[in-house]
Amino acid sequence: MRAHVASYDLVQPGSLREVLTLLAREPGVYRPLAGGTDVMVVYAGGKLAHTKFVDVHGLRELRGIVVTDDAVTLGALTTYTDVQAEPTLGREFPMMGQAASETGGWAIQNRGTLGGNIANASPAADSPPALLAYDASVELTSTRGARWVSYATYHTGYKTTVRAEDELVTRVRIPRIAPGAQGSRVHMFRKVGPRKAQAISKVSFAACVDVDGTRITSARVALGGVAPVVLRVVATEGALVGADVTTLDVAAIGATLSREVTPIDDIRSTARYRRRVAENLFVELTRKLKAHVGLGSQAR
Amino acid sequence: MTASSVGKPLDRVDGRLKVTGTATFSAEVAVANVAHAVIVGATISKGKITALDVGEAQRVPGVVAVLTHLNAAKVPGADKPTEMTDKVVQVLQNDAVLYDGQPIALVVADTLEHASHAASLVKATYAAEAAICEMDKEIGAGFAPKAAPGRPPPDSNRGDIDAALATAFARVDATYTTPCENHNPLEMHATIAVFQGEDHLTLYDATQGIFGLRKRISKAFDLKPENVRVISHFVGGGFGSKGSAWSHVFLAAMASRATGRAVKLSITRQQMFAFVGYRPQTIQQVTAAASKDGTLVALRHEVTSATSRFDTFAEPSANVTRMLYACPNVKTSHRLVRLDVATPTFTRAPGEASGSFALESALDELSYSLKMDPLALRLKNYAETDPDEKKPFSSKTLRDCYTQGAAKFGWSKRKPEPRSMRDGNWLVGFGMATATYPSRQSAASALARVKKDGSAQVLAGSQDIGTGTYTIMTQIAADALGMSVERVHFDLGDTTFPETPVSGGSQTASSVGSAVKRAGMAVRTKLIDLAVKGKGGPLNGMSAEQVDAEAGVLVSKQDRTKSDSYEAVLARNGLDQIEEKIDEKEKAERKDHSTHAFGAHFIEVKVDPDFGEVRVSRVVSAFAAGKILNRKTARSQFIGGIVWGLGLALHEHTERDPRTSRVVTKDLADYHVPVHADVPDMDIVMVDEVDPYVNEIGAKGVGEIGIVGVGAAIANAVYHATGKRVRSLPITLDKLL
């Protein structure tokens, strides 16, 4: 049953400083509300236990995308629609736009924000695997100051993060590389779900692999839906780096990945299915890598 | 003759109202001094309420009343259904909890917000008992349902199936299952109840049957039927769930009587999964056997479906097996098991939708055993007459559906081996299945009236549940009256109008359309009589046979310069209007015929072999459903049915927690239906069919047949693509890896 709106308290400070002051004064009491695309669903279902919110959606300080030589920095209130429209992201970080385009429907994409997605910390979210694969950092700001944390260390457990209760997610930074600096780059984003749109993913996958000739110089591979957190499979990455694409031991590295994921049975799918899909997504990545270096045909 | 309107793809006459938001749905009717009611649902699935604390709820500002089993008036008829569509309802009569979400209290307040908030503050304490929602746990206690009056018996047996099986060349024995599905029309169930004094009640209700609702409520509340008025001008989809009066209608009326106010009760999306019916889960065992040339020698179809502990609804899944193919030895049965759940109900193509999945999958399996094309197998066993009723079909053009559908689809390009067709990495599969649905007709009345301004008003109780009833009735009436559609106003949805049946079983066009046609014809005949026999006029003295009606003008067939408008005829004879009311019965010739619509689906799927994703990439469906009254609204009905078939095949499943029997998929985030991106452009072929026997208008009904067979056609295509036979719907990704 829809919750009673008068049971909730929503404050709307006019500036970032005021929001941070409020969060510092009563840590954990006021929960930041951005696009509300997750909160309002829980509210409509009558299950929103937290009752005090601070609306940050109007904060101009948290909007905008800044492109510099070394990074693309996105305000926390960047929407999925904004992400899809940004040309530098489209050119250099295509998985950001792909993930955004597969998040909910257009209404959600217009309203939902990257910062909200990160703070909400769902392991089934679509953008986090891409952020991990692009080695993004997250800025956390409080009255104590701002700090940048690597997104790879941001999630600590199921829906838990390193963010302190007085901190707000304010910016997301994705490092750029100089063209040709690390050879050529292969991006692979894939969301596996029951519907072509508006599906909560069973498994999502993002990989960013740099190849010099046929040698892998860098690899970041991340999966959603296979662990309590959105997961970087670091052992798998380690096995890839330095390997030659033409002689990759797909079975052995796939087995490594399989050991790294810890999927569960739940209402949306089975652990067995998720593990198989994770393995098959890795196989697909290797196909893509081989096609990239001119071996075999690119299947898709 | 006036150019016929029937058959044309006329835009919906109510389309403008709908798209501009000015069509008034039940919950939107402006009623003075209305109070808002919210149902509190049980949070256990079986047991007793031991305490109900309503104190805090009552203290919420604006709360008018909190009804519970401790203070609610008795409604003796609540658990005494008399008609086929009647349900046993739970309306605060005792402390028993029979299923998850059952109404246990009703909060009435001045605003919806106050009522919702107060409802959240009602605290129930229960003595819970173990609740069972899994069919296999109760299968030993299965029992045969009683046959509903006028409906087929639960069991059938023709020929000697055991003897036939002993000699069969090929045989398939398989168990198929279909899950519980909820209807989820866009418009949630809603009622505004207005008691005027103790003995007059008006209900604005989102219903598929205003007269059935009036009968049920008037009996239950001991009111004279003529003192109960039900109004339902627009309904945002029903699919069977709005065919019965469920608990909330009673509760709204009880609250209005108790408070002396009009009471609005619009249930929530979550409550759509609680107490307004659903398609029950089925377990279906099918044996199909054939001789070497593909001639079917035996079909056995044993169905078990679930119902509640306190009421009975049997999903008639095996009925289709009795009549679809020419097979001399056929045995079918229906059994029920009782679970601690709410009562299921009619759901778009009840029986046929679920049963055709089993039958048409089994035939597909048999075709592989025989190494025979699945379409050829069906053609080999084409039933020229109804093998069950042993009567000729009133018309049957299924062969044309097969050939035209197959040709448009390119069925001949199908490679017989599973997993033999690819599109890049995707596996491609072709699947087909037959569709059929009975063409029913019930008694219906209609009134047609031509007014002195030359316009017409046509009335029939009935309902438009989004299907296009307003539009097709306007077309039928215009043709019958010899007028243009612009001059005809058709109205429905009020029990003060002539009586009509429930909009269920695909019978509205057939039943109400026949009455509307005859009423219009009767008025036209009267007008012609007046023109030739009444006072003066250019046609006076001619015989009625010599006169035509054309766009509201009577014309001499011999000399077309001689004409007489309807306005002129009425004016000259000093009449304000001419009207006729017709009580149409079932067409007599129906008794000697089996009446069914038929169709064939040809579906292509693409399956990702690594991830198990299934995408329906092409659909060609051909239907022969008698006269197509409006090619646009009919197409919408067909594609609507097919889209639901996609849901049936791939997505829909109401999941319960087996530990508590509670529904866990209570909204459209967790209960998946296809989205636009999942639905390809569909090629709908409408095969022309002339049927002089089925009813006065020759239309067979198109509301339900679209979904029939789609589950099997997709499952068969998935098998053809992957070599994996999935016998348990929905075909989720995990079942393919």
Give structural notes:
The complex is a heterodimer of chains A (300) and B (737). Chain A has 300 residues and is an alpha+beta fold. Chain A has eleven helices and 14 strands. Chain A has helices at residues 16-25, 39-44, 80-85, 87-92, 94-101, 106-111, 114-120, 127-133, 234-240, 250-260, 271-292, and strands spanning 9-11, 31-33, 52-55, 65-67, 71-75, 137-142, 145-150, 155-157, 160-161, 168-175, 184-192, 203-212, 215-224, 231-232. In chain A, strands 4-5-10-6-7 form a five-stranded antiparallel beta sheet. A four-stranded antiparallel beta sheet of chain A has the order 11-12-13-14, with helices on both faces. In chain A, a hairpin with a 2-residue loop joins β8 (155-157) and β9. In chain A, α9 (234-240) packs antiparallel against α10 and α10 runs antiparallel to α11 (271-292). Chain A is globular. By secondary structure, chain B is an alpha+beta fold. Chain B folds into three domains: 32-129 and 185-268, Aldehyde Oxidoreductase, domain 3; 278-440 and 591-735, Aldehyde Oxidoreductase, domain 4, CATH 3.30.365; 442-585, Aldehyde Oxidoreductase, domain 4 (2-Layer Sandwich). In chain B, β24 (553-556) and β25 form a beta hairpin. The longest helix of chain B is centred in the C-terminal third of the chain and has 26 residues, at 508-533. The N and C termini of chain B lie far apart (62 Å). Chain A binds chain B through residues 1-7, 41, 45-46, 105, 192-200, 202-203, 267, 269-270, 272-273, 276-277, 280-281, 283-284, 299-300, and chain B through 38, 41, 113, 116-117, 119-120, 268, 270, 424-425, 610-613, 615, 650-651, 655, 664-667, 669-670, 672, 674-678, 732-734, 737.
